[in-house]
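In response to reviewer comment 3 from the previous cycle, which asked for concrete evidence that the modeling workflow produces usable outputs, we include below a single protein chain processed end to end. The sequence was submitted unchanged, and the resulting structure tokens are shown without manual editing.
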Amino acid sequence: MLKEIVIAIQSYNDARQFIKAHKLWKWIIIPGLIYTLLFLTGMYFFSQSATGVIDYLTMVTGVSEWIQQLASSWVGFLFALAGVILWLLLLLFYFSLFKYAWLIIGAPIFTYLSERTQAIMEEKEFSFNSRQLFRDITPALRVAGSNCLRQVGYFILLILLSVVPLIGMIAPVIALFMECYYYGYSMISYSLDRKSISREQSSLYIKEHKGLAVGNGLVFYIMHLVIFLAPAYAIIASTLSVYKVKPE
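The workflow returned the following structure tokens.
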């Protein structure tokens, strides 16, 4: 698994060289600027609402009054820490929903980029076919929808775990790795869906090569330091990484 994580991370550097060599920058920058605008707008509304939600929950449940009555600094610290952890989980939950919305909105661009990358790698002439493109989009949308539902279920469990003192501290770490895995899963599926294999075989392949998915998703998160480069870079890097670890 560690070897595959390294391969996935290295594929981002390969993607940079690939994009430069084949003049794909417009497919990185234009969708990226739209993504950045939507992301920053969403983050603004999240920051306005998340703290209010936590304050409302503590007021309704009476936790804040109970802590004041105890007059214990340790209990207050533990619940303050739980509040921070819950805020982080809500942030990751928001980001997860935003990510899947973008995967659905950007499916035509991601499918096009993945197909064009594959054509270049196989030294084949790439011809744009709108009908074929929209047929290829359907599996990607199914994967995105399925992964989104799974993550919503997992996040509900993690949010419940986060309110448990001390134990809840690991919840954001679990959530982050889960996010990396499922985002990488969605990116890799663009390449696998064109190889005439069933959805079950595609899912089995990714489960056997979790490192590729985790590594791809991990660099995607790191690249949010330069937000607009992240999504299209991820699709090209995932397509290149599959060629390094070919499916059976």
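Residues 33 and 228 are 5 Å apart (CA to CA). We consider this sufficient to address the reviewer's concern, and the full set will be provided in the supplementary archive.
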